[in-house]
Amino acid sequence: MTKQIRFNAFEMNCVGHQSPGLWAHPRDRSWQYKDVEYWTDLAVTLERGIFDGVFIADVIGYYDVYKSSNYYAIQQAAQIPVNDPLQLAVPITMATKHLGVGITASTSFEHPYTFARRLSTADHLTKGRVGWNIVTSYLQSGAKNVGEDALRVHDNRYEVAEEYMQVLYKLFEGSWEEGAVVRDRGSRVFAHPEKVHEIGHKGKYFDVPGYHLCEPSPQRTPLLYQAGSSGAGRSFAGRNAECVFSASLTKHFLKNYVAAVRAAAAAAGRNPQKVLTYNLATLIVDETDAKAQAKLEEYQRYASYDGSLTFLSGWSGVDFSQFAPTDLIQKAPPNPITSMIENLANSGRSWTLEELARWAGVGGLGPVFVGSPAAVADTLQEWVEETDVDGFNLAYAVSHETFEDVVNHLVPELQRRGVYAREYRPGTLREKLFGDGPYLPSSHPAAQYRDIEAYKRSDSRAAEAVVPVKETVRA
């Protein structure tokens, strides 16, 4: 095996991110999510394990599909309460030297102009170790609470996201030229005004005429993550994302997903091997197989049945309370089948509702690998070799115990086999992951906006060349 395995920690600024009910476990710390020490302690552990980063999920809204209520979401702390993720970037990077921080923010709920400033600020303060997980959101409760009647339909959300990315690329890449900021005390010139440009964006969804408020940050455009499993999502990832997350239950499903993402990147003119793919997984590791299995069984005793179905109903849009515990989930949809239900249907087994709730109660939607360091290492190597996935986005069962077990038991075994890094590369997050420069490569769509004045001239000529439909009809 020539490819090295990579790890991200999958977290969220809330209680019991993917394992509802396990906040009650006596060794769990996730209830301390509101304390900065929770995050700095975690960051130090992850950096000791040479993790690429901590990837912090987020939702705007709450899970109210199950029993048409948010009762169990609140009772079981199923991602509510939930705090803002972006504010964690600075304390995490102050406690470490290399660990990256991936922040989730939605193109449906954040205006691109103000968000660009927030993201550039984070990239400055972390010295280029921040990334953005691009999401379009899926909770109707979020849309309603920002004054919208409902979420846009799925593919239209990606259409909005494409224009959103254009605005950000123009701000990050083109508004301030290289060399605009000189900080020349002698001539009393901080920046050359002629090298700072309005972006002049006027599109279908956004009008952003002016300048980026921030000078260029270490990465200009922070590292880009994305986790789209639909056709529209994979196509979007192929054009934009540098790191892509999946939640595939089987090697067969994951192999097809990774191939589809790489094909989408190639179709967009990008190097498909420069898109890193990570699959969701939960690793329960201990000194022996028996100890690891006992640990899993202990965790399962704390998992919440209603909390698990609260998540599953929210993720799928299907209210699972309408089915009996012994019903097979294949009976579920009179509703449109979602990618989550397709994933389960293609997992190679049948699921009763009770089995599904028990399984998803520890680690969420990804596979759970249980065993000794050697056994889990064997499994991870098989998945990488057979699917071409680059690494794993690791959820926790008990925080920080799950990550400490991975770092203390599994990472040394993978390093002994020569399939896991022993040190970080220098530089920004993008440089650590890819070994190239701090900026997006010239093959990325963002590069076309670097000379914003030339882009605006070409865009204007293209617009003038379009003959209006009414003129054609009159002719």
Question: How would you summarize this macromolecular structure in one to three sentences?
Answer:
Strands 1-2-3-4-9-10-11-13 form an eight-stranded parallel beta barrel, surrounded by seven helices. It is built from 17 helices and 13 strands. The protein has helices at residues 36-48, 71-75, 89-94, 112-125, 140-145, 154-174, 231-240, 251-267, 289-300, 305-316, 339-345, 353-360, 373-387, 401-416, 429-434, 452-465, 469-474, and strands at 6-12, 53-57, 100-106, 130-135, 181-184, 189-191, 201-202, 207-208, 223-226, 243-246, 276-285, 368-371, 391-395.
Helix content: 25-40%
* Sheet with most strands: 8 strands, parallel, barrel
Overall geometric form:
globular
Widest β-sheet, arrangement of strands? 1-2-3-4-9-10-11-13
Quickly give the structural class. alpha/beta
In terms of quaternary structure, the protein is: single chain
Please tell me how large the radius of gyration is: 23 Å
How many extended strands?
A: 13
Chain-averaged pLDDT: 90
Strand % is: 5-15%
- Tally of contiguous helical segments: 17
